[in-house]
Amino acid sequence: KYCFPNYVGRPKHVRVMAGALEGDLFIGPKAEEHRGLLSVRYPMEHGIVKDWNDMERIWQYVYSKEQLQTFSEEHPVLLTEAPLNPSKNREKAAEIFFETFNVPALFISMQAVLSLYATGRTTGVVLDSGDGVTHVVPIYEGFAIPHSIMRVDIAGRDVSRYLRLLLRKEGYNFNTSAEFEVVRTVKERACYLSLNPQKDETLETEKAQYVLPDGSTLNIGPARFRAPELLFRPDLIGEESSGIHEVLAYAIQKSDMDLRRTLFSTIVLCGG
């Protein structure tokens, strides 16, 4: 099992010394380690692949000696995707796996269905919020209910961008793509969801300290709970979509009346 961020890094400076960092493209741990020297790009945006060349390079890296150390021709592939993705996205992925990697078999499944299976259930409603997209999928006896699926293109990366804006207002600037990854780490380690954000706004919030890679200390105040509040209030960044709590309730209400009690009693939160 291997887990690494889904981005690629390219050097943003000209190499001037022999023996300097070798390579024009970095993926996985090397991209994380040297991100200060790199321009970091995500091949996916809101659950949809925007740069197929970089996406293919990431898949090649997965099969390489640095990761699985195996041949793609020997193993069937299970690929997950968000619901309501364009069919062209699925077709292009299948084309690459069959024509470039020569895999013997490929199955593309909805993330939410597999997440529900992982909990040992076949009926329930899954709220899946990842880095690029949030979706709600009611599932009955292993089958997603198509007309009840809801999708919101606001997720973890949007929270990171909003946190960067809030930190800028507090005097901390994170401008480069590498520094944005620092903001993402700060979000994961310091942010939390407030049960009563209006009340917390009026209180003296205890500041959290985070040591940045350069050794300086970042003191985070109300931004700790203001940033994740974006998931419930997209209007904070000018989006007109509903919050995830409203989307969840609406998806269940769109399901058959006989299923609603069961769905309300079995809500699975997942993503990452």
Automatic annotation (TrEMBL):
Subcellular location: Cytoplasm, Cytoskeleton
GO cellular component: cytoskeleton
Keywords in alphabetical order: Acetylation, ATP-binding, Cytoplasm, Cytoskeleton, Nucleotide-binding
Pfam families: Actin (PF00022)
A GO MF term: ATP binding
Predominant cellular place of this UniProt entry's protein: cytoplasm
Superkingdom to which the source organism belongs: Eukaryota
InterPro entries: Actin, Actin/actin-like_CS, ATPase_NBD
Family statement: Belongs to the actin family. ARP1 subfamily.
Name under which the protein is recorded: Actin related protein 1B
Top-level taxonomy: Eukaryota, Metazoa, Chordata, Craniata, Vertebrata
